[in-house]
Specification:
The chain is an alpha+beta fold and about 400 residues long. Helix content is about 55%, strand content about 20%. Helix 1 runs antiparallel to helix 2 (about 35-80) and helix 5 runs antiparallel to helix 6 (about 235-260). Keywords: 4Fe-4S, Cytoplasm, Iron, Iron-sulfur, Kinase, Metal-binding, Transferase, Two-component regulatory system.
Length: about 400
């Protein structure tokens, strides 16, 4: 009796059917009595075994190719999902573009392959032999000029020298950067102008103290000596009357200087009454009709908000008197529900061009508002009057005061 030799089963189960086909033939070798049948059975078994070997070799040969195809499909899916424009260029011709490139450059999906010069005319025609990145301005599909960062890298595509171009749209980033630079320049200019204004105010106060107050005190001193030395009672009374008159004028001048430094009405009356008083003081006897709309605030604002609001209103009303040639003025202050208060000052005067040269007062007002986290807006046009709206934080004064035991 012939012995059946066992072979180890292959690990891949898809090859097991070929072995199963060979089992009857191998079994026949055990029971077959005729040599011819034995030879036929062995032939069938060897044929099945050979077929299984061929299948295993075919699988081994095709596995790298299948892996390559899967790798290519993965790369294609990644290219289609990229948010940046991806181009493959061969001999100055774009042979591949992903959907992001079509959106960025305004290309239809069925548009024939364009030349690189047609898509990126600002790019140098000779592409580099080493990877590099450069900034380019190009025309987008919507006609807008785009700021882009283009990365170029040489590589082999299907065995041919090619270049990979990755175009990243940085238009918004560049616009933000330019706005930030402009804001920094404006802030530096405002800081310089504010310093100049402060120095001018100090010089003006120093001059007033020296020229007006100092001379008035000197004059009062001389008048007092004259009254003391005057033997005639009637003349002495006149000298004392002149002395009292000069004293009253000096007190009034000191009050004006004190108002410039810190309005006493803010401390004594509060913001609402101080604004009303300021409007009457500046606009009375100016042939200007004015209306004040200031409902009572729920609480007194913090000192810094009061001071800023008062100074902006003071500067606005002074500008109206000096430059606007207005016939009427409206001033309002309202507390808003979201922790802000809104100051509005409008006039029917000449107005001005916002894009033209601006006065120093407007820059100082905007700087004051921004300095405490507020915002100032100006609406005006030549011949259309001016409206200044200022939003300032409304923080109750009690919330900013130190509590008991605070240093």
């Amino acid at each position: 009796m012939s012995r059946l030799r066992f072979f180890p089963l292959p690990a891949n189960r898809q090859h097991w059917p070929w072995l199963l086909l060979s089992l009857p033939a191998l079994a026949t070798t055990v029971v077959a009595a005729q040599p011819g049948w034995r030879i036929a059975a062995l032939a069938v078994g060897l044929g099945a075994w050979h077929q299984w070997q061929r299948q295993r070799q075919y699988a081994a040969d095709t596995q790298p190719e299948q892996q390559l195809r899967q790798h290519q499909r993965n790369i294609g899916a990644l290219a289609r999902a990229l948010p940046d424009a991806l181009l493959i260029v061969q001999q100055a011709q774009v042979i591949y573009r992903n959907p992001a490139a079509e959106r960025l450059l305004g290309l239809a999906a069925d548009t024939p392959a364009p030349s690189l010069a047609a898509l990126l005319p600002t790019l140098a025609p000779a592409l580099p032999e080493q990877a590099l990145s450069q900034y380019l301005s190009l025309q987008g599909g919507n006609g807008q000029t785009l700021d882009t960062l283009v990365t170029i890298a040489p590589f082999l595509h299907e065995g041919r020298p090619s270049h990979l171009l990755l175009v990243h749209d940085i238009t918004q980033v560049e616009a933000t950067r330019r706005q930030l630079q402009a804001s920094n320049r404006e802030l530096q200019a405002m800081a310089q102008r504010l310093f100049t204004v402060q120095e001018d105010e100090r010089r003006a106060i120093s001059r007033d103290l020296h020229d007006d107050i100092g001379q008035a005190i000197t004059a009062m001193k001389l008048a007092a000596h004259a009254a003391i030395d005057e033997p005639d009672p009637a003349q002495r009374a006149d000298d004392l009357g002149l002395l009292l008159e000069m004293a009253d004028q000096t007190v009034g001048r000191l009050r004006d200087l004190s108002t410039l430094l810190r309005p006493p009405q803010l401390d004594a009356l509060g913001l609402e009454a101080a604004l009303s008083w300021q409007a009457r003081t500046i606009l009375r006897n100016r042939a200007i009709d004015f209306a004040v709309d200031i409902p009572p605030l729920s609480q007194r604002p913090a000192a810094v908000s009061e001071q800023t609001c008062f100074r902006i209103a003071q500067e606005s009303l002074t500008n109206i008197v000096r430059h606007a040639h207005a016939g009427s003025v409206q001033l309002s202050l309202h507390e808003l529900a979201d922790g802000w208060m809104r100051l509005c000052i409008s006039d029917d005067g000449d107005g001005f061009d916002l894009d033209g040269p601006r006065g120093l007062g407007l820059a100082v007002m905007r700087e004051r508002a921004q300095g405490i986290g507020g915002k100032l807006e100006i609406q005006t046009a030549p011949g259309a009057g001016t409206c200044i709206t200022c939003h300032l934080p409304f923080t109750p004064a009690a919330a900013t005061e130190p509590g008991p035991g605070a240093a």
